[in-house]
Amino acid sequence: MKYRKLMPAALGLVLIVAGLWAMKQTPVQASSWLTGLGSIVTALGCGFFGNGLGGLMEDWAFSGHPEAKERMEIEKRDERNVAVSSRAKAKAYDVMTFVFGALMVAFALMDVGLVPIVMLVSAYLFVEITAIWYHAKYEKEM
């Protein structure tokens, strides 16, 4: 139980190695699905490894100081800190909306292919629809 955060780090290393191996198996000239899959697996491995390593380092830092760990947990759940975090996320969302819009216009003006523009527009619409859905949900709750 003490090293339960070791599993994501180990899984991350395995995924990184597997992804790099998959990318190495693809010839340089060929644009294969194996290269894309290898890139995705490598990125997932980096995420798992970073998360697991961060947890291990946190456990190591607080290993001799249980009162500091408890104080940190209280700070995370503090009402003021939660409100500050929510407000920062809301402001970041507002900025992201304009950045996505400007990026879509820039891509369209640069005559980028249709596929990247459609993917960007789809991601933008997904975020906006999610915001509308949660807004309606929270409006009903309050």
Would you kindly provide a written description of the structure presented here, covering whatever features stand out?
It is a single chain. The radius of gyration is 21 Å and the shape is flat. The protein has 142 residues and is mainly alpha-helical. The chain contains 5 helices and no strands. Helix 1 packs antiparallel against helix 2 (33-61) and helix 4 (79-109) packs antiparallel against helix 5. It has helices at 6-25, 33-61, 66-77, 79-109, 114-141.
Keywords:
142 residues, mainly alpha
Helix content: over 70%
Coarse structural class? mainly alpha
The helix/strand order is HHHHH
Amino- and carboxy-terminal Cα gap? 40 Å
Low-confidence stretches: none
What is the percentage of strand-forming residues? under 5%
Number of strands: 0
Rg over CA atoms: 21 Å
Overall geometry comes to: flat
Number of helices: 5
Mean pLDDT reading: 86
The largest sheet is: none
Write the layout of secondary structure elements.
Blueprint (H helix, E strand, L loop, with lengths): L5 H20 L7 H29 L4 H12 L1 H31 L4 H28 L1
Quick rundown:
The protein is mainly alpha-helical and 142 residues long. The protein has helices spanning 6-25, 33-61, 66-77, 79-109, 114-141.
